Amino acid sequence: MAEPSELTQHIESYVDTSRSQTQQAASLDSITSLVKNDLITIETLVKEMEMYLTTTDNVIRARGTVLLAEVLGNLVLKPLDKVTIHSLIGFFTDRLADWRALRGALVGCLALLRRKSDAGIVSATDAKAVAESYLKNLEVQSLGQHDRKLCFQLLECLIERYPNEVASLDELLLYGICEAVDGEKDPYCLMLAFHVIQVLVQLFPDPSGPLANFSGELFETLESYFPIHFTHPEGEDSDVKRDDLSRALMIAFSSTPLLEPSVIPLLLEKLSSSLPSAKVDSLKYLSYCSLKYGADRMAKHAKAIWSSIKTAISTSLKEPTKSITSESMDGLGFLENEITAEALVLLEIVVLQNNDLYLSLILDDEDIRTIFNIITSYVSYKDFSLQGKQRLHVVGRILYITSRTSVVSCNRMLETFFSRLVDVLKLSMRNSSRECVINFGALYLCMELFTAARDLIIGSNSSISADEACFCILQSSSDSLINALCSKLAITAKEVAHDVDVYFRVKSLQILAIFPEDHLPISKSAFENCLTILMSIILVDFNKTLLWKLALKALYHIGSFVSKCHESDKALSYTSIVVEKIVSSLLDDNFTLPLPLKLEAVSAIGASGMNHVLKIVQGLQGAIFASISDSFVHGSIRSAEMAIQLLQFYSEKVIPWIKETDGLEEVLLHFAVNIWGHVESWIFHDDQVYEKGLLDATMMAMKLTVASCSGEIQNAIIQKAYTVLSSNTSLLLKESSLTSIPIRLEGLQLTERANSFSGKDELVLSLFASVIIAVQPKIEIPNVKEILRLFLTTLLKGHVPSAQALGSMINKFGTKSNRADISYGFMLEEAIDIIFETKSWNSQDNGVLSSDDNEMGLTDLCLGFVDDRQLQINSIVGLAWVAKGLLLCGHEKVKDVIMILLECLLPGGSIRASKSKPGLSERISEKDLHPSVKKSAADAFHLLMSDSEVCLNRKFHAIIRPLYKQRLFSVVMPILQSSIRNSNSSFSRSLLYRASAHIISDAPLIAVLSEAKKLISILLEGLSIFNEDPLDKEKLYNLLLVLSGILTEKNGQEAVIENAHSVINCLTGLMVYRHMMLVRETAIQCLVAMSELPHARIYPMRTQVLRAILKAVDDPKRAVRQEAVRCRKAWASLASRGLHF
Amino acid sequence: MVLGLINANPVIYEKKERRVRGAPSDADEYAVEPIDEQEIFDILLNDTQKICIFKYPEHPYSLEELKVITEDAIEVNDHRSYVRVTFTPTVEHCSMATIIGLCLRVKLIRSLPSRYKVDIRVAPGSHATEAAVNKQLNDKERVAAALENPSLLDMVDECLAPTYG
């Protein structure tokens, strides 16, 4: 047993209202744990508390009761014996009469009543006693919000747990509850109250029982809450929303059919309210209650409901604002709001419920019958008045919804309307056989009926028999309708028609063509007629944009319909009329349809089904080969342009399609092998020039094709490519067995003509490089050493794809350590050895180096051991790509390569390096590397850091280690910084700044921020260097973005504050940068951000900024002017007084 | 001084659907986008909402909703550096007319290049003392003098302070 004094202390502390809430909670916890751990029993606790529970001091008694109740609430799982529970509940039941200690009594009752049966529960008689005491003593509405909540919870708990005992209280209970709810306004309490009513009604299922007499009062209580009007501002009481409350009330309303005589008239009356939310609620409630009250009870309201629905739909429509496009639209494009939507839902429900009744109401409706007068008096859409359109729309929607609900209603509707509509249509067409006229209203309503019938079939999972009357009716006129529409469309294409007319003509054709075959077989000739007319629109009438788009969309839908339904006849027709024709249009120049539109059509039709994709891809490949051959062999420029577009389309659209659909990989192999086959067979003239763009497009298509294949197919492609390379060109034959590359053969020519191979050699080499760039790492490359040397040779001639391929190869070789299967792959180290050890030897006639013992690797070439500028630049570019390959896969050799690049930047770098090779030093020209060479070495860092689209990315399976940029940044920046400090030539310093700027602008911002203080001056220098050459504008912009990133971060802001003056100088300079609007805009935004910095630092620059801004306010671009005004305001408000005028 | 509402029940107009500008011509970096009516209208609407709220917090409407300024009532000639704004007070005896005009003028001076000549007018027939107001608003000396007055300047600044949300 615990010390009584300890217990008393806790009790004292809880009861004492002057203690803090945490103290009270702590003492409650300790008391609970005492009881829970059986250190004291409940009896002891109660005895100990006797004084607090019975004292005449109201405050202490209230607190004491709450304490006991809370303790019990925490002991729900602790088993208690019957006697204890009986005495406790007896106590709390009595306390319900004590309004001053009511809170504790309510909590206590709830805690006891909610106990689980295995821990001991309150007996039925006790529960009844609670209910009686509740009804006798409590006046719920006079209590505070929290107490009311507890009261409702108690009621809910009693009804749910002791239904029989509570039900025996009969009218007393009903009356008590109505009284308790009446006048409640708090949302949370109301949620509970509505729920209480819902469960209460279930207690009295007998329709003639006590509830029958009481339904009036119950309704009066609930009535005042409809429609829910929620005045709580958003954000407050966020756990109860208006919709929750509205739903709870709806369930309460529909809880018993006894409420029907009062509820339905109320809802109908509120429909005429001017509040939109009231209308929506009424319609929702009507739908829900109809279902709950049942068909019989609702029948007598049918007439009233029908007319309400009609009014609700027609009054809620707004003018059509949606312009007609090829987007799908419901009805006539009238904006339908929530009211219309709910009204249509209600219509569907009631028609389904009382089918005959509503059908006769609808069929006899004056408004619907007179629609025929309207549609016959106008012919085209534009003739209709707004009111007429609105009525047509309403009738269309009603017909659609009603017919869709069941077969019976569909039959009735069609029987009544369809033949009449068709008659109107036929009449209108006969009268105007020469003109483009078709009765719009009749067509529109016909289509609504067709759509309804189709949706009915789809919704029923085809369980509807095809012999139903409705389908026979449709069948009787579908073919003639299609043919008529086709002939009208043919005329439409030649004449001017209103957009909406055009829209519905095409749309109707589409609906008819894709109607489920089993229920409405359309004759083959009609179907083909329909396809032919749509195709002719596609191929000939491309000037009518809307018509063209709609026709294409219809073809797409028909295409996906036939490929889904396995209707062999229709599929055959579709293939021969649509697919084959569009494919042949690609090959045939006779069609005037512009190529981009052709491709749009091809992609839409191709997207419609698998079997179409295959056909189209084959056709497209044929077109590509034809145009490429034409351009490569005959040099036709037109074919070249066409081939470029086709290849781009192939790369962007077709390859993703093929990747998405299984089993089409063969197509890719076929494409790649075919290109190689064509390349093999082409005969080139030596002096032939061809479009650079075409080569690029071909390479990209080849890369993507290879990259999208599986390993096996890649192997096949690479073998084929190698065969072509070795048998068709002289590239591999040139002394490939030697470990050195003869510069003699090409060296001299290099300076004269950068491109020193024949057209065919370059094509084959570029395509081979593309294959190498795109293969997966594990693919074996035949004769690797030879290929490496080949690329090494060709990159020196300035063939960039070779350099990229070399980089990709290096990137994808595994290192020895992580590749166990040594015999399989060629090792990275070996490859690196080949690249860096292979000597290019120069002979005497090279002119620069006179002795024949000169052997130089790539490194030496870079560092200027030959006085050939172009060769140096080529080797630097090559080295950069190799370095990128190494960098991405995280090889440490990359450091050496980077050091070579850095050497090139430093003044006299070549001389310093040559000291390591004493034999060479004296022969090397004393002069520095040429500036253009140095610049390309600086720009190599841009190449290293930036993401490339053409190679070495994830798309082309490169091995990319995470954080490689950050690593390079942290390795190179310190070296660059110290070089900048030590450099005394302004030119090489500017190059070092340039290299640093490249690295900073592509490095992750977080890395830059950590060293912002050191980097800010370099960054500013970089900005001013990029500012000089308009070609660098993109780089300038990227670097400026880094600066703006720095400005938004606290750490960066400190760095900026220290250099505020120079940053502002730089930014004001960039504010007038002529070549790029984004640069000016960003510079001004940076200045706005700077105005937030501590005033003491920036105030001195205020006048300077304001003066500079004056110019920006007059900028040619609007966006810049806007930013300038913002900036001016920000800087002007630094001073206490306004602007100076 | 207790201010009664001058116009306790102003007519509120729906905001007109804003004309959407085509995407800025990225194609030509060097093309000039001249200052036009819509731009002036945007300048005037930005941050001028407080003009009304300042005096009458119970009227939280923008000048656009009250149709005090409309896009049609703005005349710009970028080539000749000239802009004229004609505004319409909600009632004929609106005592806010001069302060609205002054705010509009200050806002334009602060937002437009200095080459611009700004002309602010009350719409003909919309104000009881139209001529006087026009004269006051376009008299350089008087505008300058008004802005020398610290309390008046504070008021203008207060009116033109940015509104959020």
Automatic annotation (TrEMBL), chain A:
InterPro entries: ARM-like, ARM-type_fold, MMS19, MMS19_C, MMS19_N. Coiled coil: none annotated. Residues 690-1090 form the MMS19 C-terminal domain. It comes from the Eukaryota. Keywords: DNA damage, DNA repair, Nucleus, Repeat. Residues 46-313 form the MMS19 N-terminal domain. GO terms for cellular component: cytosolic [4Fe-4S] assembly targeting complex; nucleus. Belongs to the MET18/MMS19 family. Key component of the cytosolic iron-sulfur protein assembly (CIA) complex, a multiprotein complex that mediates the incorporation of iron-sulfur cluster into apoproteins specifically involved in DNA metabolism and genomic integrity. In the CIA complex, MMS19 acts as an adapter between early-acting CIA components and a subset of cellular target iron-sulfur proteins. This is MMS19 nucleotide excision repair protein. It comes from Parasponia andersonii. The lineage of its organism: Eukaryota, Viridiplantae, Streptophyta, Embryophyta, Tracheophyta.
Automatic annotation (TrEMBL), chain B:
It comes from the Eukaryota. SUPFAM superfamilies: Fe-S cluster assembly (FSCA) domain-like. InterPro entries: FSCA_dom_sf (IPR034904), MIP18 (IPR039796). The keyword Hydrolase does not apply. Signal peptide: none annotated. The keyword Transcription regulation does not apply. PANTHER family: CYTOSOLIC IRON-SULFUR ASSEMBLY COMPONENT 2B, CYTOSOLIC IRON-SULFUR ASSEMBLY COMPONENT 2B-RELATED. GO terms for biological process: chromosome segregation; protein maturation. Transmembrane segments: none annotated. This is Protein AE. Gene3D superfamilies: 6.10.250.1280, Fe-S cluster assembly (FSCA). GO terms for cellular component: intracellular protein-containing complex; iron-sulfur cluster assembly complex. Keywords: Chromosome partition. It comes from Parasponia andersonii. Belongs to the MIP18 family. Coiled coil: none annotated.
